[in-house]
Amino acid sequence: MPNLNFYAADDDWAAVVxxxxxxGLFRVFESDSEPGRELREFRAAADIATAPQGRHLELFxxxxxxxxxxxxxxxxxxxxxxxxxxxxxxxxxxxxxxYGGPFGTRELRWSHTNHNSAKRAATWAxxxxxxxxxxxxxxxxxxxxxxxxNRVIRRMAVSRIGPxxxxxxxxRLIADGGLRHEYGTGVHATPSHG
Length: 194
Description:
Elements: E1 4-6, H1 11-23, E2 26-30, E3 41-42, H2 45-49, E4 56-61, E5 69-74, E6 85-90, E7 95-98, E8 101-102, E9 107-109, E10 111-115, H3 118-124, H4 139-156, E11 159-161, E12 164-166, H5 168-177, E13 181-183, E14 186-188
Antiparallel strand pairs: 1-10, 2-3, 2-4, 4-7, 5-6, 7-10, 8-9, 9-14, 11-12, 13-14
């Protein structure tokens, strides 16, 4: 599973999303809809910037497999607010792109890309039959597109923390906030208590 954890903040996320569209390889969906709303497919980077759910995306590599599955999730009766459902976007060969970003002023969480492998999807296929046969996916195309996106993100980096690329705005936030200690899912101003 090609995975890339990277540090992004503010305009870095917009640059990553713009790159997704510039590559021309993906259809872009929100991972989860807003409660009570339909799942959205985004047609342009600007649409994502204004979307409340635009920080967790599912990327469908065009021509790589069946259409993504939109699954309804019924919310429990004690969930806050009036909506009783939401939708999520699923598919064996979808590429996840999640924004971690700043968490308060003392932590910057990883942003993240990843996708299944053919082997992992085949292992879990019987558990999630609604997603169909993993063999219907062109895994070479999924891996290639995911790898291209990861290379674009790595080229945006101005530095690294361990193996994690640091994009320009994240670099400034790290320096300005005195974030020096990497543990858990990000970099922090203070060391871990463990």
